[in-house]
Amino acid sequence: MAAVAPAPLLDEFLAAYYRRHPVGATFIGVHDYDDRLPDYSARGVDEALAGMDSLRGRLRALPPEPPASSEALDRTLADGCLEIERWELASEHFHRGNPCVYTGEAVFGVIALLLRDFAPPSQRGEAAVARMRAIPRLLAQGTANVRRAPRAWVERAIRECAGARALFERGIAIAARDGAIRDPQLSTAAVAAAAAFAEFRAYLERDLAPYAHDRYACGGEAFDQLVRRGHLLAVDAAAIRGAAQEQLAVCETALDSRAGEFEARSWRDALARLADRHPTVEQYYGRYSEVWDAARAAAETRGLVTWPDYPVRFVPQPEWVRAAAPSLYFLPYRSPAPYDRLPIVEYLVPPIDGAMAPDEQTRRLRATNDSVIKLNHVIHHGGLGHQVQNWHAQRAASRIGRIAAVDGAARITLLCGGTMAEGWACYATDLMDEIGFLTPLERYAQIHARLRMAARALIDIDLHHGVCSLDDAAAFYERRAGLSAEAARAEAVKNSMFPGTAMMYMVGTNLIHELRRDLSRSPAFDLRGFHDRFLSFGSVPVAWACAAMREEYADRSGR
């Protein structure tokens, strides 16, 4: 009986999670709560805490499962997720002190209903009306709960209010015109939603901005909790920081020593040349599919992985979101909803067309040049990286591993999926480098990508341990990682909001490389088989997957 006991509690864990996070549930493909937004009232939070404490107690009272089983893993992950969420509900980083929690959930609650054709337009329109009508209540909770906030979070929330108003004042009408959603009450509900955002912005500017502070650190104790309970890492922040410093130094040396190969005075000058290599306006949209097809063919020819039949269609960003997107956390690629199982994934390409002014066309083409299309949009996101990993995650034995890395309003569903999702996507680009799919300058850019991963990990730790300020973090990104002032500031702000997140790129990638290096010593090692098995675990902590695979290889070789 012990083997079946955890399943009902895991059902309860997931059901309660979806109730508490209805917007995230929509992105996951669970549609029981498509008409709702989160409840951050005092009563709602108290009920959530009581439910989480009860569930944790019952999870811990269960008899033990075999350590390597998916049930044991899910029980560990569920307990860690509940512990982390309990900390979040008590901290100043989320609903009690971050206005972006409210702006993000409110606007993406509606966007989530527009992005995918998981139901008829009338059904999604009805849900959108219900969510728009719930926006004034949610933003009023934000006004009641957030009485002081960090300066950068207030500024970001103000920008998100502007994006939300663009969506509700213009975008909803365009979506209805184009048939994305339908409901006779859309217009009235959108007007009320826009008015609620205008009122919330006034509160931010009048009552929060003048008294904003510059305290962003979550503290060492909370950070270690995220490392241990979220990522299941046995090492502490100091060890991760040391590895990041070492990787940063190695990458800087490599970049400096090799700049001359490109007849450049510095690595910054060399990498700047990537912007010159871009398609024409006429070639632009087709370039994505061309590179995707070539990347898949190369990966299959070299036996990197069993590539699933899970096509990506590159389409222009929808007109209904174009005015809003620059002010929001609007992603071109979102991990597909595991429980919608739509046959084709739409990748929303940054729009460039002949109606734009020539200078704007050139600016966008340089920003979305051939290397960005290949390294970021195709390999990292739409191809061997996230897309292939997401297909495997949807079929994982771990039920938490199926959903953990699904993108929500502002971050992935559960922290525990991060080292796998981002670690594999970064590792995938290294793989395509290994087989010669990158140009010499793109290979050189990969050294810079590893430098940026190390810089992110370092700032993640230093910022949340109070070692550096937000301004210090942004300056570091400019000085050491070569980011523009705007990009450096945006990265630092994102790091400040989600502790323990920026480090997962470097940690996950390095753990995968270490595992492959160790297991490749076995006579039974097969690269495709290694990757297929590794991905089969789903979006679970890489540290756990590595331990499981080491155990499997030890058993196979008779220890």
List the helices and strands and how they pair.
Layout: H1 6-20, H2 22-28, H3 42-60, H4 70-90, H5 100-114, H6 121-145, H7 151-177, H8 186-208, H9 220-230, H10 237-258, H11 267-272, H12 281-301, E1 312-316, E2 345-349, H13 358-367, H14 370-382, H15 386-393, H16 399-403, H17 418-434, H18 440-464, H19 470-481, H20 485-497, H21 504-519, H22 527-536, H23 542-556
Parallel strand pairs: 1-2
Helix pairs in contact: 1-2, 1-3, 1-4, 2-5, 3-4, 4-9, 5-6, 5-7, 6-8, 7-8, 10-18, 12-14, 14-17, 17-21, 18-19, 18-20, 18-21, 19-20, 21-23
InterPro entries: DUF885
Protein name: DUF885 domain-containing protein
Organism: Candidatus Segetimicrobium genomatis
Strands, count: 2
Give the overall shape, derived from the CA principal axes. Answer: globular
Strand content: under 5%
State Rg: 23 Å
- What is the helix tally? 23
- How many domains comprise the coordinates? 2
Structural class: mainly alpha
Q: Any overview of this molecule?
A:
The structure is a single chain. With 559 residues, this protein is mostly helical. The chain has 2 domains: 6-211, no CATH class; 220-510, no CATH class. The chain contains 23 helices and 2 strands. It has helices at residues 6-20, 22-28, 42-60, 70-90, 100-114, 121-145, 151-177, 186-208, 220-230, 237-258, 267-272, 281-301, 358-367, 370-382, 386-393, 399-403, 418-434, 440-464, 470-481, 485-497, 504-519, 527-536, 542-556, and strands spanning 312-316, 345-349. The chain has a two-stranded parallel ribbon. Helix 1 packs antiparallel against helix 3 (42-60) and helix 4 (70-90) packs antiparallel against helix 9. The longest helix has 27 residues, at 151-177. It starts with 5 loop residues before the first helix and ends with a helix. Mean pLDDT is 96; it is low at 1-6. InterPro entries: DUF885. This is DUF885 domain-containing protein. It comes from Candidatus Segetimicrobium genomatis.
